[in-house]
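Batch job 17 of 40 flagged for manual review because the log was empty.
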Amino acid sequence: MTVVVTGASQGIGRAIAEAFAARDNAHLALVARTDAKLEAVAAACRERGGTPLVVPTDVTDDAAVAAMADTVHDAWGPPDVLVNNAGAFTYAPLGELTLEGFRDQIDVNLTGAFAVTTAFLPAMRERGTGHLFFMGSVASLMAYPGNAGYCAAKHGLRGLARVVRAETKDEGLRVTTVLPGATDTPTWAGADLPSERLMAPEDVAQAVVDAAHLSDRTVLEELLLRPQEGDV
């Protein structure tokens, strides 16, 4: 199994890469901006039986995304699983959110996922198999004050995933939108919350891997996960 994970250097992305390494001894293309962090994830994946390929890439750089996809295709061909997980969160109420800041949130969380998807999708469609995951959020479903850019991007990502699903469901591809609530990742660093109040990234990763292992007759279209005590 070949798996591409963007945003693989930490948090949910790292947990997903490690989970596929452990369960499937997967070939793993690890994609994020920071090479040093990716190398640490690669070492962890090797320990779990995976074969990692570190491909430092900024998903907002179109040329870099195209080069990353070429690297993966040259090494292993089209991926069996593509996890669009790269993202960023910046808190800013409407009175403080600049146009540039809004565009940055859209670029990282939404346009980057579109760029990565379209870089791999033609070969996956030609082969007639593959599973695409889009890492949304409960912010894909709800309004969070102070998060206009992030909410708009994550709502858009859910819409993008639905269109990819509608256009490829007769071609053998599966599409899943993952909608996690608050998860114990660097995004929540410094928050005045006990770790027990947040979900473990390993739990989100387990759900993704399980969804990927359903039979070809079934697709989990949307996967909503929340902390046991509800949203924070």
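Reviewer: the log was empty due to a logging misconfiguration, but the result itself is present. Residues 111 and 216 are 29 Å apart (CA to CA). Unflagging and moving on to job 18.
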